[in-house]
């Protein structure tokens, strides 16, 4: 044993106390007089050897610090072989181990990485932070890096070191708040976390990696070292997407909660690959263009449906590995289906193992609860004014598009981000610097997010779930807008469902709920959504919202789907609604697929298929979704009969759409037509194919030169009860 000088003794004490800020100051290669020492830190080892030479304990027999002294000549010879010699050691349990030591390696994070991250501009920071399999100086292992500026010490812990917090302390990279360490010998699927000691309080706790690319299956919470081996086969899809003029294309989105769409015969989750082979053929058959996934970012609580995310960079392990998810997306693309992801940058849960108070301080969130908490949801709000937090989120959005080839993101709870007083009483929020209620940092974050996504991934879309009248949500940032591609039309959804829930006898008094959306329909690029939120929390299923007897409920539901699909705007429908379940959705059970075989439910499903086919094939129903010129009322004032009619236009032609929102059959309803001639009835929701009463126009309508509804021609039509028809001139 060697007597230690005061500096080494002080460092050794801090190592044992877990307070040494930079272990490289003490460990690894160090000159001592005319020699060199290789100092090895193995606090649980009894004996340490390098080659055939026994290392000497420093300080005491059980200090955990060992050293081997080299002459200058021996040192130079060693460097010619490797600066990272293999170390063999024996633990107290009698087991022997060997490997290179982490503390002989140079820093891996470059100065440019540190600078860009501090500026909040490192869009591929996920390639540098987190855990990455790599080879350094010919030695294979894993490099770790994490942001924890308020930490006195950060260590990597895992199965590989017995979760011993003193075993692998990390290197601090100065004022950046970043910590890093390369650990030789680690492999894919190794479990790990970070043990953090707060500099102010001395509190010690473990955290999952914010940048972890995989995590254990809940309720376990460790991060996993992940390496992808997936070979993408969707190059044609991506190439075409870059040139995509999505605004003029038919976009109909099937919203899916993967955990409850279908389960296996034992009631367990399906794997991403199994889901691909079951879900994609079904979505193709129905005719949807895209799937939108409720959040599959890792989350501990099934009942949150993914909206309380703990692992922003990790696809949930409930359904398999990250490569399994890559396979899912790849399979969708190869079969012509796009994939959107519901993404949640508005808030995160208070789980102690994850982002909350990550380094013992309010790091990702605000310290002041008036800025940093959503009390309704029991979650924290991201601090968008902090560069590194904005970088974390924007890089995360880009990560999903880059690593998993996703076609876009739906941003959850945008309204809660925009307003400082969102769901707060008067004394529970802090005004911005100008005294207003707008969250200026969140606005700047969203503008930057959208600008980067659209710049780096042309053809992808970012959709906002925004429920207020905030202007220019889907207008470019250079115009002063938020820069989203599209916005969910929550006003249309609320008015529509409220109207349809009313008994037809009362509908004449609420006719404006059908027509009001056209007042503002072209102020944004709107999606018409009927999402999971409308069929949960005792709201009932779509079918049970409908008034009337059994037949009328199904007719009303077919009418609702037609009203959604034939209006201007892209479409979104939650899974299951296409075959009319009686029960509201629950994440704990599979959809009631047995209903597919019952005629009334099958009729709704077949109508959904027909609507998608018509929407996809008819330019007039999608080409000018966001343009006033694509729509014209024929009659929006027939409130007494609860009938509306309109035209949809495109450069390729027009269609006429008429809705009857009462159970009254109207045999001689006159409709104005822009052209004289024969019109085909190309869709009728009352067809017996869909479970209707088969009232219609025998496939066609012949117009007369009798002006009506400001049109030069007109025709008397049969308007089915609680039904709609679509006419197209031959």
Automatic annotation (TrEMBL):
The family this protein is said to belong to: Belongs to the glycosyl hydrolase 13 family. GlgB subfamily.
Q: What is this protein called?
A: 1,4-alpha-glucan branching enzyme GlgB
Identify the residues that the record assigns to the Glycosyl hydrolase family 13 catalytic domain, covering every copy: 255-601
- Gene name of the record: glgB
Q: Which reaction does it catalyse?
A: Transfers a segment of a (1->4)-alpha-D-glucan chain to a primary hydroxy group in a similar glucan chain
Q: Name one GO biological process term.
A: glycogen biosynthetic process
**Which Pfam families does its entry note?**
Alpha-amylase (PF00128), Alpha-amylase_C (PF02806), CBM_48 (PF02922), GlgB_N (PF22019)
Q: Which UniProt keywords apply?
A: Carbohydrate metabolism, Glycogen biosynthesis, Glycogen metabolism, Glycosyltransferase, Transferase
**Would I find Transferase among this entry's keywords?**
yes
Q: Which InterPro entries match?
A: A-amylase/branching_C, Branching_enzy, GH, GH13_cat_dom, GlgB, GlgB_N, GlgB_N_E_set_prok, Glyco_hydro_13_N
Gene Ontology MF: a single term: 1,4-alpha-glucan branching enzyme activity
Reported EC number(s) for this entry are: 2.4.1.18
């Amino acid at each position: 044993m060697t007597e230690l000088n005061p500096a080494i003794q002080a460092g050794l004490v801090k190592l044992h106390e877990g307070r040494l800020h930079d272990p490289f100051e003490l460990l690894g290669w160090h000159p001592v007089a005319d020699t060199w020492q290789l100092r090895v830190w193995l606090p649980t080892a009894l004996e340490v050897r390098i080659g055939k030479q026994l290392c000497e304990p420093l300080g005491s027999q059980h200090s955990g610090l060992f050293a081997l002294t080299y002459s200058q000549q021996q040192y130079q010879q060693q460097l010619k072989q490797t600066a990272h010699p293999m170390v063999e050691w024996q633990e107290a349990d009698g087991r022997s181990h060997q490997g290179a030591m982490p503390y002989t390696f140079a820093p891996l994070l470059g100065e440019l990485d540190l600078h860009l991250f501090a500026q909040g501009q490192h869009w591929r920071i996920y390639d540098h932070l987190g855990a990455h399999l790599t080879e350094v100086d010919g030695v294979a292992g894993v490099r770790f890096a994490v942001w924890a500026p308020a930490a006195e010490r950060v260590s990597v812990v895992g199965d590989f070191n017995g979760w011993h917090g003193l075993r692998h302390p990390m290197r601090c990279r100065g004022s950046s708040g970043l910590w890093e360490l390369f650990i030789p010998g680690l492999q894919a699927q190794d479990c790990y976390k970070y043990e953090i000691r707060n500099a102010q309080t001395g509190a010690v706790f473990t955290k999952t990696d914010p940048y972890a690319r995989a995590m254990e299956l809940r309720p376990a919470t460790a991060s996993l070292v992940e390496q992808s081996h997936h070979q993408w086969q969707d190059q044609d899809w991506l190439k075409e997407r870059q040139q995509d003029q999505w605004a003029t294309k038919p976009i109909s989105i099937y919203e899916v909660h993967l955990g409850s769409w279908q389960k296996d015969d034992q009631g367990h989750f399906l794997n991403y690959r199994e889901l691909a082979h079951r879900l994609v053929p079904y979505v193709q058959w129905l005719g949807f263009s895209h799937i939108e996934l409720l959040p599959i970012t890792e989350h501990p609580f099934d009942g949150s449906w993914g909206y309380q995310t703990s692992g922003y960079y990790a696809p949930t392990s409930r359904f398999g590995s990250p490569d399994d998810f890559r396979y899912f997306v790849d399979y969708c693309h190869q079969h012509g289906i796009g994939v959107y992801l519901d993404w949640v940058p508005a808030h995160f849960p208070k789980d102690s193992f994850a982002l909350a108070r990550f380094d013992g301080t309010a790091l990702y969130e605000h310290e002041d609860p008036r800025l940093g908490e959503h009390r309704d949801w029991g979650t924290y709000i991201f601090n968008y004014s902090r560069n590194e937090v904005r970088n974390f989120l924007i890089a995360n959005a880009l990560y999903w598009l880059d690593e998993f080839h996703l076609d876009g993101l739906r941003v959850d709870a945008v309204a809660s981000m925009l307003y400082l007083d969102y769901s707060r009483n008067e004394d529970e929020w802090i005004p911005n610097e100008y005294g207003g209620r707008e969250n200026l940092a969140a606005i700047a974050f969203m503008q930057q997010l959208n600008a980067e996504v659209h710049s780096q991934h042309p053809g992808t879309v970012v959709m906002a779930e925004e429920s207020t009248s905030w202007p220019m949500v889907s207008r470019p940032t250079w115009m002063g807008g938020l820069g989203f591609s599209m916005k969910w039309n929550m006003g249309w959804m609320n008015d529509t469902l409220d109207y349809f829930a009313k008994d037809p006898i009362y509908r004449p008094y609420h006719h404006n709920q059908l027509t009001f959306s056209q007042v503002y329909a072209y102020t944004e690029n709107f999606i018409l959504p009927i999402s999971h939120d409308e069929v949960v929390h005792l709201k009932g299923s779509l079918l049970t919202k409908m008034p009337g007897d059994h037949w009328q409920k199904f007719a009303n539901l077919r009418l609702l789907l037609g009203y959604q699909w034939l209006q201007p705007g892209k479409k979104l429908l939650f899974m299951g609604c296409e075959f009319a379940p009686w029960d509201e959705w629950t994440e704990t059970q599979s959809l009631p697929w047995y209903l597919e075989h019952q005629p009334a439910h099958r009729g709704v499903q077949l109508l959904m298929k027909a609507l998608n086919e018509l929407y996809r094939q008819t330019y007039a129903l999608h080409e000018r979704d966001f343009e006033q010129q694509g729509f014209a009322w024929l009659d929006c004032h027939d409130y007494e009969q609860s009938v509306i009619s309109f035209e949809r236009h495109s450069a390729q032609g027009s269609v006429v759409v008429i809705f009857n929102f009462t159970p009254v059959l109207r045999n001689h309803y006159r409709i104005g037509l822009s052209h004289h001639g024969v019109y085909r009835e190309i869709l009728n929701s009352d067809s017996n194919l869909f479970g209707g009463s088969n009232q219609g126009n025998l496939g066609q309508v012949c117009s007369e030169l009798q002006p009506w509804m400001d049109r030069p021609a007109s025709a008397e039509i049969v308007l089915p009860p609680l039904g709609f028809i679509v006419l197209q001139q031959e």
